[in-house]
Write a structure and sequence with these properties.
The chain has a single domain (3-472), classed as Amidase signature (AS) enzymes (Alpha-Beta Complex), CATH 3.90.1300.10. Mean pLDDT is 95; it is low at 394-405. The protein has an eleven-stranded mixed beta sheet, with helices on both faces. The protein has a two-stranded antiparallel sheet with strand order 4-5. The protein is an alpha/beta fold. It is globular and about 55 Å long. Helix 3 (25-43) packs antiparallel against helix 4 and helix 10 crosses helix 16. The protein contains 17 helices and 13 strands. Helices cover 39% and strands 13% of the residues. It has helices at residues 3-7, 11-19, 25-43, 51-66, 109-116, 159-166, 183-189, 223-233, 277-292, 308-323, 325-330, 337-346, 351-371, 395-398, 402-405, 408-418, 447-459; strands at 46-49, 78-82, 120-125, 137-138, 142-143, 172-177, 192-195, 215-220, 263-266, 296-299, 377-381, 422-429, 435-441.
Amino acid sequence: MTGDDLAFASIADLAPRIRQREISPVEVVEAVLTRVDRLNPTLNAFITITADHAHQAARDAEREIAAGHYRGPLHGIPISLKDLYLTANLRTTGGSRILADYLPRADATVTRRLREAGAILVGKNNMHEFAYGTTTINPHYGATRNPWDVERITAGSSGGSGAAVAAGLSYASMGSETGWSIRRPAAFCGVVGLKPTYGRVSRHGMLPAAWSLDHAGPLTRTVEDAALVLNAIAGWDQADPASSNRPVPDFTSDLDRGISGLRIGLPRHHFAGLCEAEVERAFEDAVAVLRTLGATPVEVELPRVRYAGIASSVIMSAEVSTVHARWIHQRGGDYGDDVRARIEAGLAVDAIEYLRAQRLRRWIAEEVAATFQNVDVLICPTTPQVATRIDGGLEALNDPAPAVADGPFNLLRLFALIGTPAISVPCGFSPRGLPIGLTLAGRAYDEVTVLRAAAAYERVTDWHRRRPGISSGR
């Protein structure tokens, strides 16, 4: 297996070979870091690269495994973190100038759990400043470029994570989602992005965006790999007040079960005619695939979802601006223009507007919960368009056209708003060779069914096996 082939192996395929000592963690880390050295100057997927740490951790893992102390499927696997997860004695910038030299004293809970599982950190990924934007065009650290077309964005705010996984610069990266920031970069970069249920994964030690909306979740190249990472990071944490103490299942348990008899909800009226033609075609092709696998498509109506974007925007604006209230007054000039403007606008949201948005949020959640009495999974296009050009500026994604904002974007933000699990998987490519994503979402704390449906689709398609041109340095 060549270095490039090794870098694109799945965690699920690589883990048993590492455990049986057919491949050394040292070899795996070297393959990944070689690619980082070659491709990151173009992609700009990392703010900080931790090569020395990774080499030492790989040697330590090799010794542990040789001594019979194998920790599990992440042991010896190179991963990366969106640069808002605290890492002890390693800078965590939040993609900002304000925290450019911040050295945390302790790890985030997710960071610690990944280290305990034996994962090896190769770096901290670029992101939209303070996770408050949709492009990962970062004024302080530069724009992250899409491995499928380096003139295009990776979306945001977890854009560096999407690019790193797509280009074989890490096997998994931890992203975060407040509105769509795991699943949209996954769709634009042609990888898998999993947003678990709110409370399933601790956010302790994550730089906050909006406390009632923030989720932690992985970006990977396969559904099974996402399930393996979730196994390592899920579970109650007393340091996170929103953390759930519900039992944590084995998220890989039903991946091979198939979906015969599963009811798939199609909220078409929210996106029909509002997506790019290639996106709608890919979606309908995916529905046909799920039908051949034995699933039953069911048309569903979600009238209240038209208000999801409004509720999400008000809540996010108020909470983000509260987090940044002191800095925006004391160090406003250190923010990028787009983020500063959005924070300043959020300071004008009053308590009545915020409370109304929270009530609207509950009203929407009740409707979706009722819908899940009749279907097992909801599916929709992850995003209504493929990746836009970097030179198109921030406006193309920050301010979608009203008709689009009232349709697909409501669905895109819905699942972070109500906190239910959702995953984006690759489902096709545009004629220009740009990836398209399919979102599958489920009931709260039912990640197992969501992963089961996504894995069934992935197993009979090959979209996730394709590699971007940048992967070979072209």
